[in-house]
Amino acid sequence: MVKAIQVRETGGPEMLVLADVELPPPGAGEARVRHAAIGVNFIDCYFRSGLYPSPTGLPFIPGSEGAGVVEAVGPGVTLVKPGDRVAYVASPGSYAAERNVPADRLIILPEAISFETGAAMMLKGMTVQYLLNRTFKVGPGTTILFHAAAGGVGLIAGAWAKALGATIIGTAGGPDKCALAKSRGYDHVIDYRSEDFVARVKELTNGAGVDVVYDSIGKDTFPASLDCLKPLGMWVTFGNASGPVPPFSTQILSQKGSLFATRPTLFTYIAKRADLEATAGDLVARVADGTVPIEISARYPLEKAADAHRDLEGRKTTGAVVLIP
After folding, report:
1. What pLDDT score does 318 carry?
2. What are the phi and psi torsion angles at 160 (to 5°)?
3. Which contiguous run of DSSP H or E holds residue 255?
4. Where is the Enoyl reductase (ER) domain (predicted)?
5. First to last CA, the chain
6. Structural domains of the chain sorted by starting position, each given as residue range(s) with its CATH number in brackets
Protein backbone atom coordinates (compact mmCIF):
# COMPACT_ATOMS: atom_id res chain seq x y z
CA MET A 1 0.00 0.00 0.00
CA VAL A 2 1.15 3.55 -0.72
CA LYS A 3 -0.17 6.93 0.39
CA ALA A 4 -2.01 8.77 -2.37
CA ILE A 5 -4.55 11.52 -2.92
CA GLN A 6 -7.78 10.26 -4.46
CA VAL A 7 -10.72 12.02 -6.09
CA ARG A 8 -13.80 9.91 -5.44
CA GLU A 9 -16.28 12.58 -6.58
CA THR A 10 -15.52 15.60 -8.72
CA GLY A 11 -15.93 19.03 -7.18
CA GLY A 12 -13.95 21.48 -5.07
CA PRO A 13 -10.56 21.03 -3.38
CA GLU A 14 -12.23 19.22 -0.48
CA MET A 15 -12.66 16.26 -2.86
CA LEU A 16 -8.92 15.55 -2.57
CA VAL A 17 -8.77 12.73 -0.01
CA LEU A 18 -5.67 11.03 1.43
CA ALA A 19 -5.92 7.24 1.09
CA ASP A 20 -3.90 4.03 1.13
CA VAL A 21 -3.93 2.44 -2.33
CA GLU A 22 -2.63 -0.81 -3.74
CA LEU A 23 0.30 -0.48 -6.14
CA PRO A 24 0.99 -3.60 -8.21
CA PRO A 25 4.45 -4.42 -9.55
CA PRO A 26 5.29 -2.48 -12.71
CA GLY A 27 3.85 -4.10 -15.82
CA ALA A 28 5.39 -4.49 -19.25
CA GLY A 29 6.89 -1.19 -20.36
CA GLU A 30 6.44 0.41 -16.93
CA ALA A 31 8.78 1.68 -14.22
CA ARG A 32 7.97 2.17 -10.55
CA VAL A 33 8.99 5.67 -9.40
CA ARG A 34 9.36 6.68 -5.75
CA HIS A 35 8.50 10.37 -5.75
CA ALA A 36 10.71 12.95 -4.09
CA ALA A 37 8.48 15.80 -5.30
CA ILE A 38 5.24 16.18 -7.27
CA GLY A 39 4.25 19.11 -9.48
CA VAL A 40 0.90 20.88 -9.06
CA ASN A 41 -0.69 22.40 -12.16
CA PHE A 42 -3.98 24.01 -13.16
CA ILE A 43 -4.81 20.96 -15.27
CA ASP A 44 -5.01 18.99 -12.01
CA CYS A 45 -7.80 21.33 -10.90
CA TYR A 46 -9.63 20.77 -14.18
CA PHE A 47 -9.63 16.99 -13.62
CA ARG A 48 -10.60 17.36 -9.95
CA SER A 49 -13.53 19.69 -10.76
CA GLY A 50 -14.77 17.52 -13.63
CA LEU A 51 -14.08 20.15 -16.32
CA TYR A 52 -11.83 17.51 -17.88
CA PRO A 53 -13.08 13.93 -17.48
CA SER A 54 -10.65 11.52 -15.86
CA PRO A 55 -9.44 8.98 -18.44
CA THR A 56 -9.80 6.21 -15.84
CA GLY A 57 -13.14 7.28 -14.34
CA LEU A 58 -13.74 7.53 -10.58
CA PRO A 59 -12.00 7.22 -8.21
CA PHE A 60 -8.70 8.47 -9.61
CA ILE A 61 -5.38 9.88 -8.44
CA PRO A 62 -4.74 13.33 -9.93
CA GLY A 63 -1.43 14.86 -10.95
CA SER A 64 0.55 14.61 -14.17
CA GLU A 65 4.07 15.54 -13.10
CA GLY A 66 6.69 14.19 -10.74
CA ALA A 67 10.34 13.48 -10.05
CA GLY A 68 12.08 10.78 -8.06
CA VAL A 69 14.01 7.53 -8.23
CA VAL A 70 13.23 4.39 -10.22
CA GLU A 71 12.57 1.55 -7.77
CA ALA A 72 11.82 -1.26 -10.22
CA VAL A 73 11.12 -1.85 -13.90
CA GLY A 74 8.74 -4.15 -15.70
CA PRO A 75 9.41 -6.53 -18.56
CA GLY A 76 10.93 -4.99 -21.68
CA VAL A 77 12.09 -1.73 -20.09
CA THR A 78 15.51 -0.59 -21.27
CA LEU A 79 15.25 3.21 -21.18
CA VAL A 80 15.70 3.40 -17.38
CA LYS A 81 16.94 1.17 -14.58
CA PRO A 82 16.54 1.01 -10.78
CA GLY A 83 18.38 3.86 -9.10
CA ASP A 84 17.99 6.33 -11.96
CA ARG A 85 16.92 9.89 -11.13
CA VAL A 86 13.95 10.67 -13.35
CA ALA A 87 11.22 13.22 -14.04
CA TYR A 88 8.11 12.97 -16.17
CA VAL A 89 4.78 14.23 -17.44
CA ALA A 90 2.24 11.46 -17.90
CA SER A 91 -1.44 10.62 -17.48
CA PRO A 92 -2.96 11.44 -14.07
CA GLY A 93 -1.62 9.54 -11.06
CA SER A 94 1.30 11.50 -9.62
CA TYR A 95 -0.28 12.61 -6.30
CA ALA A 96 1.16 9.54 -4.58
CA ALA A 97 4.28 8.48 -2.74
CA GLU A 98 5.00 5.99 -5.54
CA ARG A 99 3.44 5.11 -8.86
CA ASN A 100 3.99 3.07 -12.02
CA VAL A 101 4.79 5.21 -15.07
CA PRO A 102 5.16 4.21 -18.73
CA ALA A 103 8.95 4.10 -19.06
CA ASP A 104 8.88 5.88 -22.40
CA ARG A 105 7.52 8.98 -20.61
CA LEU A 106 10.52 9.23 -18.25
CA ILE A 107 13.56 11.41 -18.80
CA ILE A 108 16.82 11.16 -16.87
CA LEU A 109 17.21 14.04 -14.43
CA PRO A 110 20.80 15.29 -14.21
CA GLU A 111 22.39 15.61 -10.77
CA ALA A 112 22.63 19.37 -11.37
CA ILE A 113 18.82 19.66 -11.20
CA SER A 114 17.08 18.96 -7.89
CA PHE A 115 14.05 16.72 -7.58
CA GLU A 116 11.86 19.69 -6.63
CA THR A 117 12.98 21.60 -9.71
CA GLY A 118 12.47 18.50 -11.84
CA ALA A 119 8.93 18.04 -10.55
CA ALA A 120 8.12 21.71 -11.04
CA MET A 121 9.57 22.14 -14.52
CA MET A 122 8.35 19.31 -16.70
CA LEU A 123 4.77 20.25 -17.61
CA LYS A 124 5.23 24.01 -17.39
CA GLY A 125 8.68 24.08 -18.96
CA MET A 126 7.88 21.79 -21.86
CA THR A 127 4.67 23.77 -22.42
CA VAL A 128 6.76 26.92 -22.84
CA GLN A 129 9.20 25.09 -25.10
CA TYR A 130 6.56 24.04 -27.61
CA LEU A 131 4.59 27.29 -27.38
CA LEU A 132 7.61 29.44 -28.24
CA ASN A 133 9.30 27.08 -30.68
CA ARG A 134 6.58 25.11 -32.43
CA THR A 135 3.09 26.60 -31.98
CA PHE A 136 4.42 30.03 -32.97
CA LYS A 137 8.12 30.43 -33.73
CA VAL A 138 9.36 33.27 -31.50
CA GLY A 139 12.59 35.12 -32.19
CA PRO A 140 14.14 38.56 -32.68
CA GLY A 141 11.52 40.94 -34.03
CA THR A 142 8.61 39.01 -32.47
CA THR A 143 6.34 40.85 -30.05
CA ILE A 144 4.25 38.66 -27.77
CA LEU A 145 1.56 39.09 -25.12
CA PHE A 146 1.63 36.48 -22.36
CA HIS A 147 -1.21 36.41 -19.84
CA ALA A 148 -0.58 35.29 -16.23
CA ALA A 149 3.02 36.46 -16.50
CA ALA A 150 3.76 35.81 -12.80
CA GLY A 151 2.42 32.24 -12.85
CA GLY A 152 4.48 29.10 -13.19
CA VAL A 153 4.30 29.00 -16.99
CA GLY A 154 4.50 32.78 -17.30
CA LEU A 155 7.76 33.19 -15.38
CA ILE A 156 9.43 30.46 -17.45
CA ALA A 157 8.08 32.06 -20.64
CA GLY A 158 9.51 35.47 -19.74
CA ALA A 159 13.04 34.18 -19.34
CA TRP A 160 12.85 31.87 -22.35
CA ALA A 161 11.30 34.40 -24.73
CA LYS A 162 13.90 36.98 -23.67
CA ALA A 163 16.66 34.48 -24.48
CA LEU A 164 15.08 34.05 -27.93
CA GLY A 165 15.24 37.81 -28.51
CA ALA A 166 11.52 38.62 -28.40
CA THR A 167 9.82 41.73 -27.04
CA ILE A 168 7.55 40.49 -24.26
CA ILE A 169 4.43 42.10 -22.81
CA GLY A 170 2.80 40.37 -19.85
CA THR A 171 -0.30 40.75 -17.73
CA ALA A 172 -0.50 40.07 -14.00
CA GLY A 173 -2.74 40.95 -11.07
CA GLY A 174 -1.32 43.50 -8.64
CA PRO A 175 1.94 45.45 -8.25
CA ASP A 176 3.90 42.64 -6.61
CA LYS A 177 3.15 40.14 -9.35
CA CYS A 178 3.88 42.75 -12.02
CA ALA A 179 7.25 43.52 -10.44
CA LEU A 180 8.10 39.82 -10.22
CA ALA A 181 7.32 39.26 -13.91
CA LYS A 182 9.28 42.36 -14.89
CA SER A 183 12.32 40.98 -13.04
CA ARG A 184 12.13 37.74 -15.02
CA GLY A 185 12.47 39.11 -18.54
CA TYR A 186 9.25 40.90 -19.44
CA ASP A 187 9.77 44.26 -21.16
CA HIS A 188 6.36 45.53 -20.03
CA VAL A 189 3.86 44.15 -17.52
CA ILE A 190 0.25 45.35 -17.41
CA ASP A 191 -1.72 45.18 -14.16
CA TYR A 192 -5.05 43.87 -15.41
CA ARG A 193 -6.71 44.91 -12.14
CA SER A 194 -6.13 48.60 -12.75
CA GLU A 195 -5.38 48.91 -16.49
CA ASP A 196 -7.17 48.10 -19.74
CA PHE A 197 -4.74 45.59 -21.20
CA VAL A 198 -6.01 46.04 -24.77
CA ALA A 199 -5.48 49.80 -24.64
CA ARG A 200 -2.03 49.38 -23.07
CA VAL A 201 -0.95 46.84 -25.68
CA LYS A 202 -2.00 49.22 -28.44
CA GLU A 203 -0.08 52.01 -26.72
CA LEU A 204 3.05 49.91 -26.22
CA THR A 205 3.04 48.74 -29.86
CA ASN A 206 2.16 52.14 -31.36
CA GLY A 207 -1.18 50.77 -32.46
CA ALA A 208 0.25 47.79 -34.33
CA GLY A 209 -0.62 45.00 -31.89
CA VAL A 210 1.36 41.86 -31.13
CA ASP A 211 2.28 38.90 -33.29
CA VAL A 212 0.95 36.29 -30.87
CA VAL A 213 -1.10 36.14 -27.67
CA TYR A 214 -0.50 33.23 -25.31
CA ASP A 215 -3.66 32.91 -23.21
CA SER A 216 -4.09 30.45 -20.34
CA ILE A 217 -6.86 32.49 -18.67
CA GLY A 218 -9.78 31.64 -20.97
CA LYS A 219 -13.18 33.22 -20.38
CA ASP A 220 -12.03 36.46 -18.71
CA THR A 221 -9.58 37.43 -21.49
CA PHE A 222 -11.79 36.52 -24.46
CA PRO A 223 -12.42 38.15 -26.88
CA ALA A 224 -10.19 41.01 -25.67
CA SER A 225 -7.06 38.97 -26.46
CA LEU A 226 -8.04 39.02 -30.13
CA ASP A 227 -8.07 42.83 -30.08
CA CYS A 228 -4.39 42.82 -29.09
CA LEU A 229 -3.27 41.06 -32.29
CA LYS A 230 -1.87 42.37 -35.54
CA PRO A 231 -3.68 41.32 -38.71
CA LEU A 232 -2.71 37.68 -39.39
CA GLY A 233 -1.68 37.31 -35.74
CA MET A 234 -2.16 34.13 -33.73
CA TRP A 235 -4.22 33.59 -30.58
CA VAL A 236 -2.95 30.58 -28.63
CA THR A 237 -5.44 29.52 -25.97
CA PHE A 238 -3.84 26.83 -23.83
CA GLY A 239 -5.71 26.99 -20.50
CA ASN A 240 -8.93 27.91 -18.71
CA ALA A 241 -7.92 29.45 -15.37
CA SER A 242 -11.04 31.66 -15.31
CA GLY A 243 -13.28 29.12 -17.02
CA PRO A 244 -13.56 27.85 -20.60
CA VAL A 245 -13.82 30.18 -23.57
CA PRO A 246 -17.48 30.32 -24.64
CA PRO A 247 -18.44 29.00 -28.09
CA PHE A 248 -17.85 31.61 -30.78
CA SER A 249 -18.27 32.03 -34.50
CA THR A 250 -15.04 31.79 -36.47
CA GLN A 251 -16.30 34.86 -38.35
CA ILE A 252 -14.85 36.91 -35.49
CA LEU A 253 -11.36 35.87 -36.60
CA SER A 254 -12.04 37.29 -40.04
CA GLN A 255 -13.52 40.50 -38.69
CA LYS A 256 -10.56 41.18 -36.41
CA GLY A 257 -7.86 40.75 -39.07
CA SER A 258 -7.82 37.25 -40.59
CA LEU A 259 -6.50 35.90 -37.31
CA PHE A 260 -5.29 32.40 -36.55
CA ALA A 261 -6.47 30.52 -33.44
CA THR A 262 -5.26 27.26 -31.94
CA ARG A 263 -5.89 25.20 -28.80
CA PRO A 264 -2.72 23.12 -28.33
CA THR A 265 -1.90 20.61 -25.60
CA LEU A 266 1.51 19.41 -24.45
CA PHE A 267 0.52 15.77 -24.73
CA THR A 268 0.07 16.06 -28.50
CA TYR A 269 3.43 17.77 -28.93
CA ILE A 270 5.31 15.07 -26.97
CA ALA A 271 3.29 12.01 -28.03
CA LYS A 272 6.28 10.59 -29.92
CA ARG A 273 9.32 9.58 -27.88
CA ALA A 274 11.62 11.54 -30.19
CA ASP A 275 9.58 14.71 -29.64
CA LEU A 276 9.59 14.17 -25.87
CA GLU A 277 13.36 13.77 -25.86
CA ALA A 278 13.90 16.88 -27.99
CA THR A 279 11.48 19.02 -25.97
CA ALA A 280 12.74 17.84 -22.58
CA GLY A 281 16.36 18.02 -23.73
CA ASP A 282 15.99 21.68 -24.66
CA LEU A 283 14.33 22.39 -21.31
CA VAL A 284 16.91 20.51 -19.24
CA ALA A 285 19.77 22.31 -20.99
CA ARG A 286 18.27 25.76 -20.37
CA VAL A 287 17.45 25.02 -16.74
CA ALA A 288 20.88 23.50 -16.08
CA ASP A 289 22.75 26.49 -17.53
CA GLY A 290 20.56 29.02 -15.71
CA THR A 291 18.94 30.53 -18.80
CA VAL A 292 15.50 29.49 -17.54
CA PRO A 293 15.11 29.58 -13.75
CA ILE A 294 12.34 27.53 -12.17
CA GLU A 295 10.62 29.51 -9.42
CA ILE A 296 9.06 27.37 -6.66
CA SER A 297 6.86 29.61 -4.53
CA ALA A 298 5.17 27.04 -2.30
CA ARG A 299 5.69 23.53 -0.98
CA TYR A 300 2.94 21.48 0.65
CA PRO A 301 2.94 18.02 2.24
CA LEU A 302 1.10 15.50 0.08
CA GLU A 303 -1.78 15.38 2.56
CA LYS A 304 -2.29 19.14 2.13
CA ALA A 305 -3.01 18.88 -1.60
CA ALA A 306 -6.41 20.53 -1.07
CA ASP A 307 -4.71 23.63 0.34
CA ALA A 308 -2.42 23.73 -2.69
CA HIS A 309 -5.44 23.68 -5.01
CA ARG A 310 -7.23 26.40 -3.03
CA ASP A 311 -4.21 28.68 -3.20
CA LEU A 312 -3.61 27.97 -6.88
CA GLU A 313 -7.21 28.63 -7.86
CA GLY A 314 -7.34 31.67 -5.58
CA ARG A 315 -4.36 33.14 -7.48
CA LYS A 316 -2.41 33.31 -4.22
CA THR A 317 0.68 31.68 -5.71
CA THR A 318 3.39 32.76 -8.10
CA GLY A 319 5.77 30.47 -9.96
CA ALA A 320 5.49 26.74 -9.35
CA VAL A 321 3.89 24.71 -6.53
CA VAL A 322 5.05 21.26 -5.44
CA LEU A 323 3.83 18.53 -3.10
CA ILE A 324 6.30 16.60 -0.94
CA PRO A 325 5.32 12.97 -0.13
Report:
1. 83
2. -70, -45
3. helix 251-255
4. 11-323
5. 14
6. 2-122+267-324 (3.90.180.10), 140-263 (3.40.50.720)
